[in-house]
Amino acid sequence: MTATANLTDYLVIDEKQEDRLTDLYARYRKLSETPDTCRPMIIINTPVQALPVWEERLADPLIMLKAELDQIRPHLALEDDRVPTVRVQFGTAQVAAAFGCEMFVPPNNLPAAGSHVVTSSDAVFRTNVPSLDAGWYGKLAEWTDVWKNNLPAGVHIQHPDIQSAFNSAHLIRGNDILLDFYDAPKAVGHLLDTVTDFMIAETKHLKTMISDDKKFFFDWGSMWKGAARISNCSMHLISPDWYREHVFPRDVRFFKAVGGGRMHYCGSYGEVIDEFFKVPDITGLDFDIVHHDFHAVCGKAPAHVVLTATGGPRADHPFIKRLLAGDWPKKRNIIIPVAAASIDEGKQLLAALQKSMPY
What we know:
The chain is an alpha/beta fold. The protein has helices at residues 15-33, 54-59, 61-70, 73-78, 94-98, 121-124, 137-150, 165-173, 176-183, 185-210, 240-258, 271-276, 294-300, 318-324, 343-356, and strands spanning 41-45, 85-86, 103-104, 112-113, 156-157, 216-219, 222-225, 228-231, 261-265, 282-287, 306-309, 334-339.
């Protein structure tokens, strides 16, 4: 695909879809604003054929954008609750790369951290906040500009991956950071603060590129209250006590500075989820239902926090079977992702789930 190609007409959202999406955005706002009277959201994910390999997408901004748009088409056909959004996909190590970590691109996959740039606890104190275009962020800004000039009407750009203070500190320092909790806790604090400072500045900078909305943002094909998602994947490597002492204050500071947001947690350790809910400005959480019972987490989540499951189970998953049987959580501000083999199967599954809701 050449740099002169134009994708503004590649995906057309007609007037009927525009009306449906206007209503959809209003329903998403209700998840946070009127959680006791809203209705759950359902996103049906179906296979998309003939997507380019990641090497091709990472080599050309328009090839990546075209692939992102192709993944919206099934949802428009299904008329499910996925919003038409795209994201510049540069992987989970963008903050680490800004601090100097090498980027490694596995075969047909997204970039990842290929090195740990801080090799001693003493070196942590020589770590400074990078510039806003450090690492891949300069390239991200360039690609975002290209996308804005090629974006079809009605399609939104999602916030780029920002990870979290501890996730990125773990990539920057490597597994030695786990020893630093014992041997050099001040170094841990310095690195977490430095990463948090950068995340705050970078998030505000990125927000100005993609959105004028001060209250909501797009992520994972949904709309969330706040400004960004942080990913606390590495949190199952430390105890809830260490999270409270070392990481919690930085999560609090980040969300307060940017205007709130949601968390991702794909870890297996359940006790730390209770600590996440104590972050004052948290607005949402996704977690892995392989390790955590969705209904149980719904029962202890604050009313305003929107919940969703990481990934998308198929219809034969026990959790989806439970919903289809009419056993939905009392908590209504939830987003249910489900995988279907085809659009036809997806339509049937969407209708069945909607009919099974007891609200």
